Here is the input.
Amino acid sequence: MQWLLSASVSRVLGLDPLVSRLPAPGARLTPPTTFPSMPRTLLTLPPDAGEYAPFYAGYVARVPAGDILTILDAQLGDTLAVLAGFGEARGDHRYEPDKWSVKEIVGHLADTERIFNYRALRIARGDTTPLSGFDQDVFVAAGRFGARTLESLTRELELVRHSTVALFTGFDDTALARRGTANNVELTPRAAAHIIAGHERHHLAVLRERYL
Here is the structure.
């Protein structure tokens, strides 16, 4: 099943002038190793424990060895395949009344990825301003993801991932190793990329085990 932006969703998102230039739904990115990019080797290595908050250790541990940009590109395909299995009829499904719906999980994934991209950008550019944390439950409640289609949310997540890979492709090893502060804990851009990947893998496992 392919995910397509409808004309109405495009207008809501303000994307009408851009739709013809967006990557096709489900399209794979050019392999990150062939992108014109800054010299870097750090994205092929896992971050050290001191590069991120202990809370994220479980996410980082989920990420397999290899170039993190290749991993991010490849695992998006897995996520899209799982989400395609739900269809619109089950987009509001939750396995317990107080758990997030499928739509809310997808919205949460896109929101969290954007936040870690923003943190990585600020830190990579040498900004030492302490960055605030965020309350994921407040974000999900305010996102009103249930009012949208699963199709539009999935397409948005896909576009965010394209942006993620493009962003990290532009970081060299110096930028990837810079340290900043997010939610009162040190963070490097390299660690942010691994947290994004591990966070997605965590929720993908939950979708497979509890929602299908």
Q: What stands out?
A: DSSP finds eight helices and two strands in the chain. The CA atoms of residues 129 and 181 lie 7 Å apart.
